Structure formats: structure tokens, C-alpha cells
Predict the structure.
Amino acid sequence: MRVTVRLFARLRDIAGASELARELAPGATIGDVWRELAGEFPELAGYERSISSAINADYARMDQVIRDGDEIAFLPPVSGG
Amino acid sequence: MTVRLKPDTTGMRRRGRRRWRGASVVSGFSRTSYTETVLSPLSIGSEPLELERIVAALAAGPDAGADGAVVTFLGLVRNHNLGRSVRYLEYEAYEPLALKAFERIAAEIAERWPSARLALHHRTGRLEVGEASVAIATRSPHRGDAYAACRYAIERIKQIAPIWKHEFFEGGEVWIEGATANPDDGVARAQAERIACA
């Protein structure tokens, strides 16, 4: 199945892209996507404990299972205001 | 581009008796002209913020006559941060999720201060020193609730809104990273409430 991954702020800078397409095995979780990305871009690994994640523009936990066509987002610590 | 919510969103609907009922209760206005003339209460986008417009976004509710207080807050781009001379900031946001976070903050305020209503606009893109990045207005029958709800809103934005500051200073640039956003973190929410009621 195919998903879109959105990256923001410094995560986007590290990966060099704000949006990535990824092929995943059925049953994959958000955490699986993150680990694959962290393998690809080692600098991301430092964010393991401080990121938030979202599916289809709703906050979601890393153990949530992904469905085909989902938009996954990884968010570094926020600094709005 | 500015993303705006229609007045009849889920967050607004939770307000019970004081909920936003839209144009049908404003005689002489069709729904279309109502939404065109009154800015929606929650928005994010690159347009400059205008305090008067967000105050107006709260002024048209059916129970507006019962209110005795409006409290407003503007967050400004500061020319210094952690010993650095700031040249300008660039704000980035995950806009659809930011709007949902704003709705959630509005719903939390409706739960904690049932008589208070919230309007909140956040800017994105490049902002110069002195420009406003966020504008908040709260309105309620008595000033205490409006003050508390306003302070609560800015504290919660900093905790859960997916928005980031990219700081450009003399000699470099850095992404500012504050709180790990977790809307279900009750400890963070209680801390925002303590600050609001201090």
C-alpha cells in the first residue's frame, strides 16, 4: 500500500523534502514508517523521543496501523505563538 | 492562503446554550452575507492580523448583549531571543491540524469557562520584528473568565498547535523547538489552566 509522508520544520530540512511517497506492507504502523525514515536519514533518529505524529491531519499514536492512501505526518516539538 | 472554519464547526457546537447559531438568528442577513462580513473565529494563514477584525468575529453571536468584557492578546516578533539579535521569523504550520488544534482549544475553553468564547488567528510565513504572529480575543459576561480564557488559549497554542518558528538572526538561523505536542497530555493541560488562573 502507498502512503504520503509529510515532514515539517527541521525534519523537512533533514530529509530535504516536505513530502515523500512510501510503499508499505499491510499492517504497518506509524512507528514502522518512522523507523524506515530514520534509517534513511540518520539525523532524524535524534527526534525519536520528541516527535508527534498524525494520520490524515489528526494526532495519532506511533502504534496506530496505517491504511492505503493515508497521509502520515511527523512533527518536531512545536513553537507557535 | 488563509484557511478558515465556518462558524458551525464541531468545536463551536459543543458550546451548548451559547453556541454559534449562524445567520438564521440574525434578522436581515442571509447565511452567505453573514459569513462574508464576519470573519470566522478560528483561522491560520499568511494575511496580516487585525485585532479589530478578530474582536468583530466574536461580536455577532446571538447572546452578545449578555457580554461585559472582551480581552485581547497580540503576540509580537521580538528583536532578541536567547542572546541572539533576531532579524525576522518564518512561521510554518501544518494548517489543517492547526485548525483542529484551535477547535480543540475552543472546546476546552467552553468546558472550563462555559460563558467565554474564543477567536484566534495565527499567521504563517515571514514576519518582521514588531509584527503580530498571533491574535486572540475572548469575550464573556464578566472579565475574570475572559482574562483566564485568553491566557489559557496562548499557553495551549504553545503546547499543541503544529506551528514552528524558524528564527533568522545575526549570524545564522535556527528552528525553535518547544513542547512535544500531545493534546491528550493532562499534565500539560492542567499546567496551562494553572497559569491561566494564577
Chain B touches chain A at residues 75, 91-94, 96-98, 100, 122, 133-134, 154, 157-166, 175-184 (CB under 8 Å). DSSP finds six helices and ten strands in chain B. Residues 6-37 of chain B have pLDDT under 50 and may be disordered. The longest helix of chain B spans residues 95-112.
